[in-house]
Write a structure and sequence with these properties.
The protein folds into 4 domains: 172 residues, Alpha-Beta Complex (inorganic pyrophosphatase (n-terminal core)); 104 residues, Diaminopimelate Epimerase, Chain A, domain 1, CATH 3.10.310; 105 residues, Beta Barrel (OB fold (Dihydrolipoamide Acetyltransferase, E2P)); 195 residues, no CATH class. The protein contains 26 helices and 21 strands. The N and C termini lie far apart (59 Å). The protein has a 5-stranded parallel β-sheet with strand order 2-1-3-4-5, sandwiched between helices. Helix content is 43%, strand content 17%. 44% of the residues are buried. Helix 2 crosses helix 7, helix 7 packs antiparallel against helix 9 and helix 12 crosses helix 14. By secondary structure, it is α/β, with parallel strands linked by helices.
């Protein structure tokens, strides 16, 4: 069992005949080949659909078939079959309609195809409806038992099994040749398995292992051209190469253009044409990245600024401007960060919008969405991913209904991430990474082992990438051992001084040398004793009164003063909604009690205020994150207005005193003010390198501030004050 898991040569693959209707489908296809009847392959526009279509076209043509293909346009037709395309295929002479990665619930369209003289063969892997469609054959792993070796195949895996069965039927006298033609398609199978996040069990893992070996040894021209665009040597390609480099590029085509471009890339033998198509795909991918970044920035900002994010069982965010085709990938990013389901909706008032959801283990997001049937228009998907349409006026009710459903139906498997082992930081070595990589390929059903190291000191964090969406975090143990850990999509995430780390390890080739790469799964405060439930706490420096959860903090303050007899207080508040009698950080004076009314922009500012006031008691008031704004355009507008006023007063914007005054006035860090001033000076050249760098720096600082405010508003009171520098 273990040997078969590690070595595909020790695994016995399952016969395609294990599928119901496989022999019927092969009979009909072989008849079409013998009689030269045109076969129309109908695919889908995601990577699983693109690779399924490419595989069927190449495999059936190699068997002698006359084959054409259709992939619907995402913007015009959405997923699945449509009558217009079916009619067009029949007019062009098709006699057999062969679907891949779609069709199992397209009852009306399949009935229409039969009416106009098409024999329909369905290969799909999506959930079955109440009945099977009226087709010649329905080949779908959902018709097998859940623990069957073929049960987890994605669309491209099902397509491969059909081509393999056809090749075996027609192999008399050409066995080795036909076998080689089928083997040459395994790289496409690997692409689809990884991109569709198929569960690695049974033949799915076996085909992935074989496909990756094929990808490394004999990449087809189109894949070789894509890898060159990504500066990746095919010899070291793995599942991460597909997941982070090839898959996103192919998906960009289906999201923003015509997925037929990808099919041509994957099927061409012309090296020059492959390079031309790869260059077009690279341009589309750059456009996709820019659009996705903008959606991510707004989505994460909404999540951080919404106090409900922490306690809600599911995240539901909306916008009138998000590109519908990119909602799923951003929802996935939110799910990864918050470890809970996420749904993104793009809809305008009075219209029907589109939405996508992603989920975590134990929560069937497709079932949760379809349970809101009266509020949505259409839906489809899997337990882990789903899409739907919804009217603007139904969004609020949908959000509440979804939260209730997820709360009531969350499975027992929904648990916090648990490590496989706890390691001393000194034991995290390149040798260990190399040993763990023997368990590859990793993915659904075989995730990378999660490890834990505790009580590490955060030395520093550096932004990564020209978009600064990621961070490199340097962590050190008590003995001084330091390692760099990559924290993807963490721009603006708050880091404690001491942390416990959950992480994964990877052994990778980089610039001709093998190295160890560590990646953050989760960073938390270093383990401390549970905080008392009472609102009044003590630390080594202050008495802490936590009124953040109080519905009537004004009354609570009166009671505090009556009980303690303290009247000497200072209230610190900054931002858009600062009351006139409250004070900024520059106006505060020494007092026995400090009331903190708005979340600070960062720990340094909190330390500065604590040093200035020197309180005996710190009171955390119920604060709204709406009292301040960390939206880049709002903050930039405020800085521009203050600059104009300073100039009229004859003050220099480069004067640190002026910059400190600006920061205190709007509740921001001085570094943000400086970055905003630099950005404003570069606005005359918005496409220039300096402007782009200034924009990235400004946005990153605001994301950090928003994350800290959220941390301050939701973390334990003792943790909040314990994170303040000791020399404050």
């Amino acid at each position: 069992m273990a040997r078969a898991f590690l070595d595909p040569n020790s695994y016995t693959p399952t016969s395609p005949d294990a599928f119901p209707d496989m022999r019927v489908a092969v009979d009909r296809l072989c008849l079409a080949i013998d009689q030269r009847e045109p076969i129309q392959v109908w695919g889908d526009f995601d990577v699983d659909g693109q690779t399924s279509t490419s595989l069927l076209v190449l495999g059936l043509r190699a068997a002698g078939a006359v084959v054409a293909y259709t992939i619907p346009n995402r913007a015009e037709h959405s997923h699945g079959l449509n009558k217009q395309g079916i009619a067009q295929a029949r007019e062009q002479g098709a006699r057999v309609l062969l679907t891949c990665d779609c069709g199992v619930t397209d009852y009306a369209e399949i009935a229409f195809a039969r009416e106009i003289g098409l024999d329909v063969i369905i290969t799909d892997h999506h959930d079955l409806g109440d009945t099977l469609p009226d087709a010649v054959a329905v080949i779908n792993p959902k018709r097998l038992l859940p623990d069957h070796a073929l049960a987890h195949l994605p669309g491209v895996g099902v397509a491969f099994m059909l081509v393999k069965a056809v090749a075996e039927r027609r192999s008399e006298g050409a066995g080795e040749q036909r076998s080689g033609e089928v083997e040459a398609l395994l790289d496409l199978v690997a692409l689809g398995i990884v991109a569709d996040v198929a569960y690695q069990a049974g033949d799915t893992r076996y085909l992935l292992q074989r496909g990756l070996a094929r990808l490394r040894s004999s990449p087809r021209p189109g894949i070789r051209a894509l890898l060159k665009m990504a500066n990746i040597d095919p010899a070291y390609a793995d599942s991460d190469t597909i997941g982070y480099h090839i898959g996103p590029r192919l998906n960009a085509v289906g999201r923003l253009d015509d997925a037929a471009v990808s099919v041509e890339l994957l099927t061409t033998k012309d090296e020059a044409r492959a390079k031309e198509l790869a260059a077009k795909i690279e341009t589309l991918n750059q456009d996709r990245r820019l659009m996705q970044r903008r959606i991510e920035e707004e989505a994460f900002r909404q999540a951080v600024q919404d106090p409900a994010t922490e306690n809600s069982p599911v995240i539901v965010l909306t916008s009138t401007t998000w590109h519908p085709s990119l909602l799923g990938v951003v929802a996935s990013a939110l799910t990864n960060r918050y470890d809970k389901p996420a749904v993104l909706i793009s809809v305008k008032p009075g219209e029907v919008g589109r939405a996508s959801g992603r989920s975590v283990r134990g929560i069937d997001i497709h079932a949760a969405i379809t349970a809101q049937g009266a509020l949505i228009e259409t839906s489809g998907g899997h337990p882990n991913a789903a899409g739907f349409a919804i009217r603007y006026e139904n969004v609020a009710a949908f959000r509440e209904g979804l939260r209730k459903y997820v709360t009531d139906h969350a499975g027992a498997e929904v648990v916090s991430v648990q490590p496989e082992a706890t390691l001393d930081w000194r034991d995290v070595t390149v040798r260990l990474a190399e040993d763990l990589d023997r368990l590859a390929p990793f993915g659904a059903g075989n995730p990378r082992p999660i490890l834990k190291s505790a009580n590490l000191k955060v030395v520093r964090a550096e932004p990564l990438g020209h978009e600064t969406k990621h961070q490199a975090v340097f962590l050190q143990d008590e003995s001084g051992n330091m390692q760099r850990v990559l924290w993807w999509r963490s721009s603006g995430q708050w880091l404690p001084d001491q942390c416990d780390l959950l992480f994964t390890m990877q052994h990778e080739m980089y610039k001709g040398k093998w190295r160890m790469q560590l990646q953050v799964v989760r960073i938390t405060n270093a383990s401390v004793d549970t905080e008392p439930a009472a609102s009044e706490l003590t630390s080594d420096r202050y008495k802490i009164v936590d009124l953040r959860a109080s519905e009537d903090s004004a009354t609570a303050l009166v009671q505090l003063r009556e009980n303690t007899g303290v009247t000497a207080t200072q209230t610190w508040a900054e931002g858009l909604a600062k009351p006139a009698d409250d004070r900024t950080r520059l106006q505060l004076e020494p007092a026995s009690v400090l009331l903190i009314a708005t979340p600070p922009p960062g720990p340094d500012e909190l330390a500065e205020v604590l040093q200035r006031v020197a309180p005996q008691t710190v009171v955390l008031l119920a604060a709204s994150l709406d009292d301040v704004s960390d939206r880049p355009e709002v903050v930039l507008g405020l800085i521009a207005a203050m600059l104009k006023k300073s100039e009229s007063n004859g003050d220099s914007s480069d004067d640190p005193v002026v910059q400190n005054r600006m920061a205190a006035r709007i509740g921001q860090r001085v570094a943000t003010i400086r970055a905003g001033i630099t950005l404003l000076r570069q606005q005359g050249d918005p496409a220039g390198r300096l402007h782009i760098a200034a924009r990235a720096s400004f946005d990153f600082l605001l994301q950090e501030t928003a994350a800290y405010r959220y941390y301050f508003a939701t973390a334990s009171a003792r943790s909040v004050l314990a994170d303040v520098k000791r020399d404050a």
